Amino acid sequence: SSRAPAGSVSAESCIPAGLRLGPVPGSFKLGKYLSDRREPGPKKKVFSDAVPPVFQVRMVRGELVDEAGSSALEWIGLIRAARNSQEQTLEAVADLPGGQIFYRALRDVQPGEELTVWYSNPLAQWFDIPVTATPTHDEKGEERYICWYCWRTFKYPNSLKAHVHFHCALSHGRPFLHHDH
Length: 181
What we know:
single chain, alpha/beta, Beta-clip-like, 8-stranded mixed beta sheet, 11 strands, zinc-finger, zinc ion binding, nucleus, SET_dom_sf, metal-binding
């Protein structure tokens, strides 16, 4: 399987809670290339004009822009999937099932902080992504997440959820949640 380059997008200035980015262009496959390891890749800084003027920001028509002034459509695909809720700064949301997908800031994102995203619960259910993952503890007492189909072990809950949805050969044809699309 070919891997997308792992990128990272960080805030150059404070990004206020509730700010929406998007819509996300193309087919939505958040988490498809997620792994337990952080892989180095291209870095990009973004600016917000919806902040107090103490920060050096670039204002372009009321939206977040990168160093080159490009809109979110140009770089939103570089935002990394969050491996767990502690590192998550954005959630993927849709106004209606099957509608356009946006990223929404869960809290104020501080300058220098990386933007990472994961599914909101309603969007996860829409895409048949597991909403929860229960940890077990290995012999060293560290939390681990085990695939309930193939028994592969993961360090982070979202790595397990992405594996079950995109990669586990034993889970295909068996949706995690039963619901109507």
